[in-house]
Specification:
With 556 residues, this protein is α+β, with helices and mostly antiparallel strands. The protein is 56% helix and 15% strand. It contains 13 helices and 15 strands. Mean pLDDT is 78; it is low at 5-11, 13-23, 101-108 and 541-556.
Length: 556
């Protein structure tokens, strides 16, 4: 009993271990049997087509072919093509490989569009390889559906013939019907063979289905293995040559005594020729790399690209010439002159592929412009002591409704810090449009002080001297002794009820932060002086008119 149980256990364990192997072997045997059956059917179809070709050739050479030569030759050619296709399918079914990889394209007419596509897109072949699998699978599925529908028609025809044969009484008619039946049976066998081949091909194609990631990885591997590598190295050679030559040009400009602030005409010609040489050598570096690797496809693509670029640039030649004139410094914008850009004046420091404009009054005083941005600008010589901007950072300015300190001014914005900590921001062009008054270089305060008509005897001689002395001492007392430079008191005008005096005080730029406070201080000193000296201030005289020329003065 124990031996039997041990034997059963060993047997089941062995079956469990070897069952996958046995199942695989059985599947292989079944696959081979199916292939043999399909090969037999395919061989039968090939033999039948060969017989048909022989029969037609015999008919062509016999008396029955007279007058039918063209028709018979055409049918023979069609059967020969059909035979070649069946033989190819037979070989593919035997070897399970695609013989199309050994077929070379010869004696084809030159298709210019196709050649251009291949030259302009070196990835077309790789993309076709990737998409050939799903396209072939879809074609096989469509063919299978077509063969299945054709099999239904042939089965119906054969069934109808078999139903008709028992009713045929004449041997001659039966013989003709059997011939037709043989034709339909051959046709059915041929369709069945095609169906079997297509089914097996579909099974082979779907058996080793690749994921999208694997397909993309394969494309990248194939591309970077040859053309991708060549393209990358060619582009790298272009960049290395381009930046190396530009670096050498900068060193020449830095070290050469001829490349100073005032470059001569010949130095400018040298700079232009150097830029042209840089472009030419950089392009030749691409061709050198591609020629080294023997990649004639990319060489052709590069040549076509350069020709196309040159053809497309023919309308830009006048524009290029205008830019060349700018670099040669005899265009509409010239070095060391002033140009207005975005409403702000700049000094043209240097004209090159990137033109440098400078305004030292601005925080970010350097800007770089491409040559094309200078085309619509005009420059002029800079006058002596010509201001480039009305203020600098740290200056106190007076605008239409704003008084404050400039804390930042850039080509785009100006920030003004107001008293109390608030700030105002202006676009630079709007800031300039308000004609800012810069108080940091000094300013003058003008105030009008009025006295009553009773002081008309002293208003032009005694009062101005007293008021000037009191204002001067008052400013000293309030700590402004070093902030004013001159005080003037002058008689201004005679009003209806007052005599007006104009108070003029000149201050240094250090007093700019106290601009508003100084107005109040001077007015206060004037009022205090009037009280001390018993000067009578004017008041508005009001009369009420009643009736005809009757006036009643107001009460005092």
């Amino acid at each position: 009993m124990k031996k039997t149980l041990l034997f059963v256990t060993v047997f089941m364990f062995s079956a469990f271990l070897f069952y996958p192997v046995l199942a695989t072997e059985l599947e292989k045997d079944e696959d081979y049997n199916t292939r043999i059956t399909n090969l037999e059917l395919l061989h039968k179809s090939i033999s039948q087509v060969s017989k048909d070709i022989e029969n037609l050739q015999g008919a062509l050479q016999g008396p029955n072919g007279t007058g039918r030569e063209d028709e018979l030759k055409q049918r023979i050619n069609e059967l020969i093509l059909k035979q070649k296709k069946l033989v190819g399918n037979f070989n593919q079914l035997v070897t399970e490989v695609d013989p199309g990889v050994f077929v070379t394209e010869k004696d084809k007419k030159l298709d210019l569009n196709k050649v251009l596509k291949e030259l302009l897109n070196p990835l077309i072949r790789e993309v076709k390889d990737v998409t050939s699998r799903p396209r072939m699978i879809e074609n096989l599925r469509s063919s299978i559906e077509l063969y299945q529908s054709q099999l239904q028609v042939t089965d119906k025809a054969i069934y109808n013939i078999d139903s008709l044969l028992p009713h045929s009484k004449k041997s001659l008619l039966t013989k003709e019907i059997n011939k037709i039946k043989d034709v339909w049976e051959n046709r059915r066998n041929e369709i069945q063979t095609r169906l079997n081949i297509a089914t097996q091909q579909l099974e082979l194609k779907t058996r080793y289905k690749k994921s999208m990631a694997q397909s993309i990885q394969e494309v990248l591997r194939v591309f970077f293995k040859n053309r991708g590598r060549n393209l990358f190295l060619a582009f790298l050679a272009f960049l290395v040559t381009w930046f190396s030559l530009l670096r050498i040009h900068r060193l020449i400009q830095h070290l050469s005594p001829l490349h100073g602030d005032d470059r001569s005409f010949y130095i400018r010609i040298f700079d232009i020729l150097y830029v042209v040489m840089t472009v030419v050598l950089s392009v030749l570096a691409i061709f050198a790399v591609l020629y080294f690797f023997g990649d004639w496809v990319l060489i052709s693509v590069s040549i076509i690209f350069i020709i196309g670029f040159g053809w497309a640039s023919k309308h830009a030649i006048p524009k290029f010439w205008s830019q060349a004139k700018l670099i040669l410094n005899f265009g509409t914008v010239r070095e060391k002159e002033m140009v207005i850009y975005n409403g702000i004046p700049y000094r043209v420091e240097s004209i090159n592929l990137l033109t440098e404009l400078v305004n030292n009054k601005l925080d970010n005083h350097h800007i770089r412009l491409p040559l094309k941005d200078l085309m619509d600008l005009r420059s002029r010589p800079i006058s002596e002591n010509e201001p480039m901007f009305p203020s600098e950072s740290g200056d106190w300015v007076l605008l239409n409704n704003t008084f404050g300190k400039v804390t930042a001014q850039t080509p785009e914005t100006v920030r003004i810090e107001l008293r109390g900590g608030a700030s105002a921001h202006y676009l630079t062009i709007d800031y300039l449009s308000q004609s800012p008054v810069n108080l940091s270089s000094g300013f003058r305060l003008r105030l009008t002080f009025s006295l009553d008509h009773s002081h008309r005897s002293a208003i032009t001689n005694e009062i101005p001297g007293v008021l000037e002395k009191e204002i001067s001492s008052g400013l000293f007392e309030k700590g402004y002794e070093n902030l004013f430079t001159e005080i003037k008191i002058e008689f201004k005008d005679v009003g209806l009820s007052s005599l007006d005096i104009e108070v003029i005080v000149d201050f240094t730029g250090e007093a700019a932060p106290e601009y508003n406070a100084l107005h109040r201080v001077i007015r206060q000193i004037c009022i205090d002086t009037a009280c001390t000296c018993n000067w009578q201030l004017p008041y508005q005289q009001v009369r009420f008119h009643v009736g005809n020329d009757v006036s009643i003065p107001p009460e005092s």
